[in-house]
Amino acid sequence: MKMENGDAHSEAQGGERVVWEFHNVCLTRVPGYGFGIAVSGGRDNPHFTNGDPSIAISDVLKAGPAEGKLQINDRLISANGVSLENVEYARAVQVLRDSGAAVQLVVKRRIVLPAAPEPQTLKITLNKNKKKD
């Protein structure tokens, strides 16, 4: 498994393996783009159908400061050391707005790995032959 910026945690779902990669990302605010992201979700308005209250990246602006660094559905864990886990949407937006010219984000990214193949039983027959000199 390739790890770029941090740890990974895995879980199994329906035969496939899900790995969470953690990344540290620094974004610099750019006029006209801000940080180049849109967020959604939160405790008061979950973005995901399973009710996950994470703050999620819902858009990454092309040619913006987050392009190539963040992906849609990345979950924000913290911004400049302030936890964004299990917070309301408005709180997450306020933390990002109050970040100033740069923000250090910790995000987790869901990676789905193919299911491990079923173990197969091999039948092997050994035959002993007498060796002639």
UniProtKB/TrEMBL annotation:
Listed InterPro entries: PDZ, PDZ_sf
GO cellular component terms listed in the entry, alphabetical order: bicellular tight junction; plasma membrane
UniProt superkingdom: Eukaryota
Matches recorded under PROSITE patterns: PDZ
UniProt domain PDZ: residue ranges: 24-111
GO biological process, one term: protein localization to cell-cell junction
GO molecular function: cell adhesion molecule binding
Pfam families listed in its UniProt record: PDZ
PANTHER family, per the entry: POLYCHAETOID, ISOFORM O (PTHR13865:SF28), TIGHT JUNCTION PROTEIN (PTHR13865)
Name by which UniProt lists this protein: PDZ domain-containing protein
